Amino acid sequence: MTSSADRAQVRGLAEKLGIQPGTVVQVLGATDDVDQELLADVEARVDAEVIHGDDSDEVVDVVLLWWREGDGDLVDALVDALTNLGDQGEIWLLTPKAGRDGHVEPSDIDEAAPTAGLSSTRSTSAAPEWSGTRLVSPKAARGKSKR
Asked: Whole-structure pTM over 0.90, yes or no?
């Protein structure tokens, strides 16, 4: 059971990730282990349903990519995440925190991001069990201030 303090903390996480009202969000890699409260908060913040999966042609502002060690090739997943991403868009790579099943080493992210044409701009605690790493194309990083 989640305490009211935990729920209050989670409610602010979409905003903490820089997700603004009206943002178009695509979710990739979501399985039953993702943080449902974070997803609900994102939908509430953007006041719309997020796009699940890669079956849409809609241009998106943010991709939430849930990724675990053993999910496959991270470079391929990042390149695929760029498919619908707008020019100034960003990818939030969400990985299990250290000590949890599926944890991805930060060095693995640091190696995969540039290969996919992305730069890591910051990391944060995205949810109680998940870390988030903000990835942008180098051109987008120049045109957007860090949040």
From this structure: no
